[in-house]
Amino acid sequence: MEKLKIGIIGGGASGFFAAIQAAKNGAEVYLFEKSNKVLSKVLVSGGGRCNVTNGTSSPSEFLKGYPRGNKFMKKVFRSFNPKDTVSWFESRGVLLKTEQDGRVFPVSDKSSSIANALQEEAQSIGVKVMYQSGIQEVKLVNGKFLLKTANENREVDRLVICTGGKPKKEGYTLVDQLGHSIHPPIPSLFTFNAPSSEIISLKGLSVPNGHIRFEGSQLQYSGPILITHWGISGPAVLKLSAFGAEWLHEKQYEAVALIKWQEDFTEEGLRAELLAFKGEHPLKKISKNPLFGLPGRLWEFLTEKAEIDQELRWEAVNKKKINKLIENLFRFSLKISGKTTFKEEFVTAGGVSLNEIDANTMESKLVKGLFFAGEVIDVDGITGGYNFQAAWSTGFLAGNASSLIGQ
Fold first, then answer.
1. 344 confidence band (pLDDT: 50, 70, 90)
2. pLDDT for the residue numbered 93
3. 281-314 burial by CB neighbour count: b if 16+ within 10 A, else e?
4. 204 — alpha (psi -120 to 50), left (phi > 0) or beta?
5. pLDDT for the residue numbered 288
6. In the chain, what are the domains?
7. Average pLDDT score over residue span 148-154
C-alpha cells in the first residue's frame, strides 16, 4: 500500500513537531522551508536558551497565559499538554529545568539542545526537509494539494500549514488561497516607548515586583519592570502588551501607564511608613536614604519628581511634598508613545480564525485534508514558554490527525 504523502509548510517549532508525529505514524513527510535554515526562532528565543514551556502545574492557571484562544487551547491540551512536552524532550536525552518564575529551559542553557533533538528525531524517522523551497501557490486538485515552489511542483494527500505569525495580512496568502479568513494580525509582546520621559536616564535599573496599569482601562499586570534607554520593558510590560494588544493598537500606541514600584504598595501603608520614618530619623536627608528596597537612583529620581530638594531632611518636609512622593511611588505617570518589537522573537495576535478549525484535530472545517499548527492560527501567549507550548501541542495534534484520519 502506498504511503500517505503529507506536506508541512514551515520549518519552525510547530512544523517539526507536526512532521515528526506524521512520520512516526508511517506517512511520507515533506517539510518545506523557504530559507536555508530551520528552527530559527527556537535558536534565538529566551536569549539563546529556548524557553520550552512553563512549569505552571494547574491547567486552568496555564490557560490564563493565552490572551486570545485559551478556550481553543483547553481542547488542544487534552491531547498534548506541558507535561507531555517535558516527557517528550527528556525521553530524547534533553534534560529540562524549571526556574523560579516557572519558565522551563534545557539544563544545558543552550537552545541548540532543543533544535538538535528535533532535527535528529526528524532525520531518524525519514522526514524530508526541503530547504529554500518556499511555497508560492497551493491548489486543490482532485482532493489533493498541488504545491508550487520556484523549482518544482509536488502533490501531497494532506497539508499542514505552519508558517508562523506575520506582521501584515498579506503574509497569509496561502491561507487566503484556500478560502480561510484571517483575523487581522497585530503585534503582541512588545516594550513601551517613552521618549519624552526623563525616566530613560535610569536605563538599566529594574524592580523585581512592580505593577503597571493603563489609565482608562482595566488592563494591568505585575512582575519585574526594567527601565530601558527607550522606555520600559521586563516581564510585566511584555505580558501587559499581550493582554492589551488590541486596546493599544486602537490607541495607536499612545497611552498613559501608571506604575506602582512595588505591587503591595497602598497609599495608606506608604503614608504610615513615611511618617514613621520621619519620626525616627528626622535628621536624615530624604533623597539620600532610599526606602522600600528601591534602587538608590530610582528613589532619588522619585524624590526629585516630588520637588524634594537633595539637601532636605525629614524634619523639614511638609505634607504637600509627602503627598507628591506617595503619588510617585504608588501611581507614577508615564506617557507611552510607540512600541519596540524584537524581530527575532516577534509574536502576533491574529491569524487563521479559530471558528474555522477543529480544536480536536487542527483540521480545517472548510477544506478536508488541510491542517494548521503554531502561530499561524489566532492564538498567542504571554512570555514565559506559552507560545512554544502552543506550537508543540498544535503541531503534535495536526501531525497525528493528518496522518491518521481516513486511514
1. low
2. 98
3. eeeeebbeebeeebbeebbbbbbebbebeeebbb
4. left
5. 96
6. 5-187+348-404 (3.50.50.60), 190-340 (no CATH)
7. 94
